[in-house]
Design goal:
The chain is of the alpha/beta class. The chain contains eight helices and seven strands, in the order E-H-E-H-E-E-H-E-E-H-E-H-H-H-H. Strands 1, 2, 3, 4, 5, 6 and 7 form a seven-stranded mixed β-sheet that branches. Strand 1, helix 1 and strand 2 form a beta-alpha-beta unit. The chain starts with a strand and ends in a 5-residue tail after the last helix.
């Protein structure tokens, strides 16, 4: 069965490769502009829209759509439009807590569909203005929700998280595995071990996602 990832995100492709999945990438190109409402419903709706759009082009494939948003004080921070926008977001986030919401939708060729949502609480460190400006000049924030990558080894924007580290990178792997299972296509990979090996962070949510399993 062909697997199609409805994204061209390098991070999501990297995670699919980590899981040993053979896949093709086909971006959905849906409008990701939030129009108000509950952030959790918005991110769920975007992952479904991406998956359903691409499933229409690949009816015999298993399709995966995903979306990630950053929420600060109830306001969604999308991808920055330019350097000034990235600086604005990073200043707003500095030294504060915010939520990262990631949703994945898996659609089986049979029509079975499953959507999962992961929420991670993130605390940013008190980086200096010079660090912030150097990070924006690097170009790394420009394609990322909230204008940062948690895994950036130079900027190191995050001081603490509660929840899924991979979700903050853009794809909650345990939730993805559960969505595969729900549509009848379980993964053979041991997801938390692979995730820890890749990110360097132990999985704290696996017991919640897969209760009773090792």
């Amino acid at each position: 069965m062909t697997i199609v990832l409805a994204s061209q995100s390098p991070r999501r492709r990297q995670f699919f490769q980590l899981l040993g999945l053979t896949f093709v990438a086909d971006a959905a190109d849906v409008d990701e502009t939030p129009n108000g409402g509950d952030p959790a419903e918005i991110v769920r709706g975007l992952s479904r829209a991406k998956a359903r759009t691409v499933a229409g082009r690949h009816p015999s494939a298993l399709v995966v759509g995903a979306d990630t948003i950053v929420v600060l004080d109830g306001v969604i921070l999308g991808k920055p439009a330019n350097g000034a926008d990235a600086r604005r977001m990073l200043r707003a986030l500095r030294g504060r807590d915010h939520s990262v919401l990631s949703s994945v939708t898996v659609i089986h060729p049979s029509g079975q569909e499953a959507t999962e949502l992961a929420e991670t609480l993130v605390r940013m460190r008190g980086y200096t203005e010079a660090e912030l400006r150097a990070y924006v000049r690097s170009g790394d924030p420009m394609d990322k929700a909230g204008a940062y990558a948690i895994q950036n080894a130079v900027f190191r924007p995050v001081s603490e998280i509660a929840g899924c580290y991979a979700s903050v990178m853009g794809l909650p792997l345990c939730h993805l595995a559960r969505a595969f299972h729900r549509v009848g296509a379980p993964l053979s990979a041991h997801v938390p071990n692979l995730c820890r090996a890749e990110t360097g962070h132990p999985c704290s949510i696996y017991p919640e996602i897969w209760p009773g399993l090792p």
